[in-house]
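Hi team,

Filling in the usual template for the complex we talked about on Friday. All components are listed, including any nucleic acid strands or ligand strings, so the model treats them as one assembly.

SUBMITTER: L.P.
PURPOSE: interface mapping
COMPONENTS: two
RESIDUES: 554
SEQUENCES:
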Amino acid sequence: MSKALNEKPNAEPLPAAASAGVILNGRYLPPPEDKDGMIWVRTSALIHASAEDLYNMWRDVEGAPLWQEQIERVTRTGETTSHWVMRPANDDDKDKHRDNTIEWDCEILKDEPGRRIAWKSIGGESENAGEVVFEPAPGGRGTMVTVLQEFRMGKLASAWETIVGRNPKQAVVENLRHFKALAETGEIPRTQGQPHGPRGVIAGMKKSIYGEETVTPPGLNRKAS
Amino acid sequence: MKALCWMGSSKVEVHNVSDPTILNPHDAIIKVTRTAICGSDLHLYDGFIPTMEEGDILGHEFMGIVEETGKSVPNLKRGDRVVVPFTIACGNCEFCKKKIWSACDNTNPNAHLMEAAYGYSGSGLFGYSHMMGGYAGGQAQYVRVPFANVGPLKIESDLPDEKVLFLSDIFPTGYMAAENAQIQKNDTVAVWGCGPVGQFAIASAFMLGAARVIAIDRLPERLELARSIGAITVDYSEEDVSVLTGSPFSAAAGDLRQGENGVDARNRQVKRSATSDPVGAQGRHCFDPWSLWGSVRQGSLRSRLRQGHHDEDGSDQHAQLYGAAAGAD
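RESULT (copied from the run log):
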C-alpha cells in the first residue's frame, strides 16, 4: 500500500487484498471506488522534461494558477502551507461583485524533491487531498507524471458540476494536460477568444460540454528546463 | 473579416465575424490568399462529424501571408508566404519528436471529447469540429495559426499559389498513399479512384519509381487528367477491373467510393501480390471515416503534411511484394 494514502486524512480504510495506492511495486492500480461522499481520480502523462524540472514547476504553488483551471490565486503561508482561492467555472460575470470564491488552506505532507509531493487541505471550504509522483520514463523519454486526487463530494454534486462547469475529476485530468503542454511547449493550447459565426441556441447551450465554460489557464512563460 | 461558417447539416454561410487575434506566444495570424475545399469537408457538410456547432469556421487547406506573429515564432515574420499543414503539431511531445505530427499530444484543447469518443486524441485540426480541437478554420480572410513555429512551410520560390497550396493536405495525402504502398523501382501500380488524392497518388507513384501506373475511375475528365500525367486508364464502368489481377501486373490499390468498386471490391481484386493501401475520404456517404483514427491509435498515422491512411488488416499486409498506391475523391 502506498504510504502517501495513509498520510491523507480523508483516506478510507483500505482493503488489505487490494491496495488503492498510486504505485505498488512499479504497477499502477485503479483508484478507490467512489463512495461515502468521496470521489477519486488518477491520471498520468508522459512529459518530455526532467523529473527535477517538473517537480520544481509543481512545487511552486504560487504558480499553480498559471496551469490549474479555476484557481484564481495561491498564497504561500509557510514552508509547507498555502492558501488557495478558486473561482468556479459557472461564476457569471454579473456575480463578480459577490464573493463566490471557494477558499481553503493546504499543507504539503510529503515532499521528496524530484520524486513525489503529497498534500491535503487543512480547513476551508474544500476538502481534498492528493499526490503526484514523478518517475523517469524508460529510455530517457522524459518523465511519467502520475496524479491521484480525492475530493469530499457526493456523486450527485459531482454530476451537477459536470453540467454547470467542470467535474473535479475531469479538472484533475485537464490540469495535468495543461501542465504537460506548458512544460513541453511553453504555452497551453486554447481556442477561447477566437472568432466564430453566430451561435444558435443549441450551440450556446453546449458550451459546458465542450469545456468552454471553464477558462483555459494563462500558462505563460513556464516552460520546463 | 468574412468567414465561411458551418450553420448546420448541408448549410454553410459566409458571415462577418471578428478578426482573429494572437492568443498564445506561438501563434501567427495569416492573411489567407488561397484556400481549398477538401473531400473531408464533405463529412462536415453532410453532418456526419459530431461536435460541429453552428458558427464554426470551416477550412483546413489554406495558405497566405504572415500578418502578425506571437513573441515565440522566430521562424516567421510579417510578409512571409506560407503554406499551413492542416494538422497542428507542438513539436515537443513524444509523438512530434518521432515526427508523427498528427498524433501530437498537446494541440487539442478538447482532447477529452476525442478520448470519450475514441479512447485517444490526435492532434488538433483546423476547422474540423470541437472534438478535434475546435480551431477556427482557414476558409476565411484571416486565420490564427497556433504553433506557427512548427507547422507552416515558408514558400520562398516564385511558384504560384495554385502549385503549392496542395502541400497543406491533399498532395501529402496522395504522396503518403504511394509511400505506404512501398513502391519499388519499376513496379506497376494501380490507383483506384482518380479524384484529387488519386491524381497526386499517380504523380507520386511515378516520383517513387513506378514504371507503369494504372488509373481506375469512370469519369472521363478524371481519366483524361490521369492520362495527361502518364497513367494508363481503365474506365471501370466499361471494363472489368478484376482483369488486372489475373495479369502479371503487380497490382496495387486505392480506394474510391463505397459500392462495387469501393474498398471491399478492391481488396478482393488485389489478391496476394500487392500492398493494399486505402487513403482519402473513402466516399462521400461512407459511415466509416473513423477508420483513420484507428491508425492514430496504433501510432502509424504519420502526418505533418500528410493525411491519415490506414493499413489493411488481413492478408494484404503480409504480402507487400509489390507497390501500390491509393486515391480517393
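MY TAKE: The two ends of chain A are 33 Å apart (CA to CA). Confidence is low (pLDDT under 50) at residues 1-26 of chain A.

Thanks, L.
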